[in-house]
C-alpha cells in the first residue's frame, strides 16, 4: 500500500506538534524544578542569616563559649581556629595523595588503576560517620582523641573528591599537547610536571577548594575523632580540638536559648566560610584555560 504525500505531511505535522509540546513541557518542568531548588536554598540561607545575625558580633569571633551553656555571651573562636587547623591537616594529607593517584589513573593507567578507581568510587559513597568509625578504630583507640585524628578522617573524605576532580581536569588536557612535548624528547614525567599540570592547574585548584569546603562542614566523623573542646582554644593538634561544626551541634541540641543562639551564629559563620571557599573556586575556574576552551 502506497502512502500519499498528503498523508506524510499530516504525520509529519503531528510528529512536529508532539515534539514541540514535549519540548515545552520538559522546559517548563525543569524551569519549575530549578526555581523550587533556588527558592529552598534562598529560604535556608535567609533563615540562617536572620537568626545568626541576632547574635553574631565581634565578641563571637574573639571569645570562647561560657562555662555554663545557659549563660549568654561568648563565642566560637576556638571552633574557628580548630576548624582551620583540622581542615589544614586534612588538606596537607589529601592533596599529595590525591594528585598522585589522579596522575597515575590518567597518565599511566593499567589494571591496578582500574581497581583503584573502583575503590575511589566506593569511597565517594561511604557515609562520613563510617569513615569516622574507621579512624576511631585504627587511630583513636591507640592514640586518643585529637585534631590529628580529625584531620585524618577529613582527609579520607576529601581524598576521593580530589582524585575525581583532578582526574577529570587532566582528561580535558588535549593529547596533542602531550604528544608535542614528547616529540621534542621530553620524558613523560617531565611532560606531566611541566606541561599537563600547569595547563590544568586552575581546574585542579578549583576541585581542591571545593573538597576543602566540603570538609569544613563535616560533623559526624569529628564526633569520633576530634571530639571537641569548648573550654579553651587548643592549638596543639595532638589534643582534643573543637570545630565550628562540633560547636554548632553541641549548642543546638541543648535546651538553652543562649546556646541555641550561639549555634545559629556559628552556622552563619560556617556558611560564610564555605561560601568564601566556593566563590574562590569559581573565580579560579573562570581563569582556567580549559574551561574557556583555549
Automatic annotation (TrEMBL):
Residues 80-281 form the ABC transmembrane type-1 domain. The chain crosses the membrane at residues 21-50, 80-106, 118-139, 145-163, 192-213, 263-285. InterPro entries: MetI-like, MetI-like_sf, Phosphate_PstA, Phosphate_transprt_permease. It is a multi-pass membrane protein. It is found in: Cell membrane. GO terms for cellular component: plasma membrane. Its main location: membrane. CDD domains: TM_PBP2. One of its GO terms (molecular function) is phosphate transmembrane transporter activity. The keyword Heme does not apply. Keywords: Cell membrane, Membrane, Phosphate transport, Transmembrane, Transmembrane helix, Transport. GO terms for biological process: phosphate ion transmembrane transport. Belongs to the binding-protein-dependent transport system permease family. CysTW subfamily. Part of the binding-protein-dependent transport system for phosphate; probably responsible for the translocation of the substrate across the membrane. PANTHER family: PHOSPHATE TRANSPORT SYSTEM PERMEASE PROTEIN PSTA. This is Phosphate transport system permease protein PstA.
Amino acid at each position: 500500500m502506497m502512502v500519499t504525500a498528503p498523508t506524510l505531511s499530516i504525520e509529519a505535522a503531528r510528529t512536529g506538534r508532539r515534539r514541540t509540546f514535549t519540548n515545552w513541557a520538559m522546559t517548563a518542568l525543569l524551569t519549575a524544578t530549578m526555581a523550587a531548588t533556588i527558592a529552598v536554598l534562598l529560604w535556608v540561607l535567609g533563615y540562617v542569616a536572620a537568626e545568626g545575625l541576632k547574635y553574631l558580633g565581634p565578641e563571637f569571633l574573639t571569645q570562647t563559649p561560657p562555662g555554663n551553656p545557659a549563660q549568654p555571651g561568648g563565642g566560637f573562636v576556638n571552633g574557628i581556629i580548630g576548624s582551620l587547623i583540622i581542615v589544614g591537616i586534612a588538606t596537607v594529607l589529601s592533596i599529595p595523595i590525591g594528585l598522585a593517584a589522579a596522575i597515575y589513573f590518567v597518565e599511566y593507567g593499567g589494571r591496578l588503576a582500574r581497581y583503584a578507581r573502583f575503590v575511589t568510587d566506593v569511597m565517594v559513597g561511604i557515609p562520613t560517620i563510617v569513615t569516622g568509625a574507621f579512624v576511631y578504630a585504627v587511630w583513636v583507640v591507640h592514640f586518643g582523641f585529637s585534631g590529628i585524628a580529625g584531620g585524618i578522617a577529613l582527609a579520607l573524605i576529601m581524598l576521593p573528591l580530589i582524585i575525581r576532580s583532578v582526574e577529570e581536569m587532566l582528561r580535558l588536557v588535549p593529547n596533542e599537547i602531550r604528544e608535542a612535548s614528547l616529540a621534542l624528547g621530553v620524558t613523560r614525567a617531565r611532560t606531566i610536571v611541566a606541561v599537563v599540570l600547569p595547563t590544568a592547574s586552575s581546574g585542579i585548584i578549583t576541585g581542591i577548594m571545593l573538597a576543602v569546603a566540603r570538609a569544613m562542614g563535616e560533623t559526624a566523623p569529628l564526633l569520633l575523632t576530634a571530639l571537641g573542646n569548648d573550654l579553651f582554644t587548643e592549638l596543639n593538634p595532638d589534643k582534643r580540638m573543637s570545630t565550628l561544626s562540633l560547636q554548632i551541634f553541641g549548642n543546638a541540641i541543648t535546651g538553652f536559648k543562649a546556646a541555641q543562639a550561639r549555634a545559629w551564629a556559628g552556622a552563619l559563620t560556617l556558611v560564610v566560610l564555605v561560601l568564601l571557599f566556593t566563590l574562590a573556586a569559581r573565580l579560579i575556574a573562570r581563569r582556567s584555560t580549559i574551561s574557556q576552551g583555549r
